[in-house]
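A reminder before we start the practical. When you read a complex entry, don't treat the lines as separate problems. The point of joint prediction is that each chain is placed relative to the others, so the output describes one connected object in space. Small molecules and nucleic acid strands, if listed, are placed in the same frame. In the example below there are three entries. Take a minute to note the order of the lines before looking further.
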Amino acid sequence: MTTGTYLYALCRPDAPQPAVRGVSGAPVRVVREGDVGALVSTVDLAEFGEQALMANLDDLSWLARVAQEHDAVVQACARVTTTAPLRLATICSDDESVRERLRQLSPAAVQLLAQLGDRQEWGVKLYAAVTVPKSGSTREASSGVAYLRERRDEIDRRAAAADAARRQADDIFTCLAGVAIDARRHRPQDPQLSGADAPMLLNASFLVEPSGLDRFRAAVDEMAAALPPDSLILTGPWPAYSFVSMEQL
Amino acid sequence: MTATLDARVDTAPPSLVDLLDRLLGAGVVVSGDVILSLAGIDLVVVRLRALIMTVRDDG
Amino acid sequence: MAELRVLPARVDSDAESIERDLFRLVLTVIELIRQLMERQAVRRMDELDDRQVEALGTALMQLDAAMTELRERYDLTPADLNLDLGPLGMLLDG
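Here is the predicted structure of the whole assembly.
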């Protein structure tokens, strides 16, 4: 069996080994190199090698399982120590190459872990209000000119509504970013996956200091109060998934 | 009215879409392929859109 | 980059429903073109004289009525004719 080393997160070298199992039931351990550690599992490249991944990442049931297994490991670690989560399917050829990577990343990783501390990520999603169905009045317009005028008015209304929705999303993001340490926007979720009826206007993550959480929550509540019910959804706390990138390290 | 808190407690797993937003570099988009099948035989494949991006680092 | 096939993505038809399924695909494309034409007409209506606007508007109104009748013949709602293109949004404005 050809194996590789799957990485879940970076951590401090004194991080305890989590008790949970990892992807595909693999045991989880900590690889330590100098001032940085990495949570890893040995995995079979028949499942996690490049070719296999191309196929597996297409398979939603595989993706769902592995994502949850990955998250379970990150969560378990984050409960007890500062954890810098890595993206799904970060794989090195073996432990030695992990160590080599850690040596390269070490100063940046140490700094990142120091900055993260016990900060947590909170997700905010904004949905549009359910739109009023198009009126049937254009169907019985009195003349060709009247018909086109009504169509123009409708197109203008929709464009104005779309602009207003975009501005609203931007305002909410900016405001909440002001009461958080850091903020990121994600792409709106595919409604076929989320099952949402209304369009998603904002999908964002905020990094919040525990001491600043009340203020952040109050700001979110204040915004939600001014919106239709269930428009603004808060999720969390998450490990700082959205605030670690290999490009930064 | 307070924000609906979709709170994550230890026993409740996170929603899959929220998790994938964070674990994959750019989220997930569902393919819009449609296959027309008649009497169990796939006749026409209509390719509409296909895109998924992951950020994958290789050691 | 890879495709994520989430839906069964197979429109299983028997001889009876294949007609409706194909019709739905065809109507979707026609509806797209109709909406594009309407948008273009609206964009240009100020540069045209009253007679031209009236002729254009009447033609589009009749086209819209024809589309509605075709849709209803096969019991299709406007939403049925809308395709989700992921980050490109829906095919039509709905």
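Discuss with your neighbour: The CA atoms of residues 45 and 53 of chain C lie 6 Å apart. What might explain this?
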